[in-house]
Amino acid sequence: VSSQPFMRLFSGMNNQYTRREVFCRNTCHDLKRFWEREIGKQTYYRESEEHRLGRSALRKLREEWKQKLETKLRLRNNPEDTEKRTNVG
To answer: In this structure, is residue 88 part of a structural domain?
Structure first.
């Protein structure tokens, strides 16, 4: 009998969400080490996803379009302010 916990994997669509059943015939230390690794993996996946979303061009594009729409709405709602600005400059 090895010191590692016995695992059976049931494959899902994504390895990140694979269901694991653990049968441990040793100490609680093995289970603790196993779950610490699992928590570490999930933390890594979450942080890498947050990082990926932070670098996403989609967020930047949405912000640009939001600013453009706000400018158009401001111009439509207050045309007098626009005329004053063009006359001054």
So the answer is: no
What count of Cα atoms within 13 Å lies in the side-chain half-sphere of residue 76? Answer: 6
Give the pTM.
Answer: 0.39
Q: Which domain holds residue 67?
A: 26-77
- pLDDT tens digits, one per residue of 10-67: 444 556 665 555 555 667 888 889 999 999 999 999 999 988 888 888 888 889 999 9
Classify residue 2: in a domain, yes or no.
Answer: no
CA dist 83 to 39, 71, 72, Å?
60, 14, 14
**Do 18 and 9 form a contact (C-beta atoms < 8 A)?**
yes
HSE-CB at 53 with a 13 A cutoff on CA atoms is 6
Structurally, the chain folds into a number of domains equal to 1
pLDDT in tens, 25-39: 667 888 889 999 999
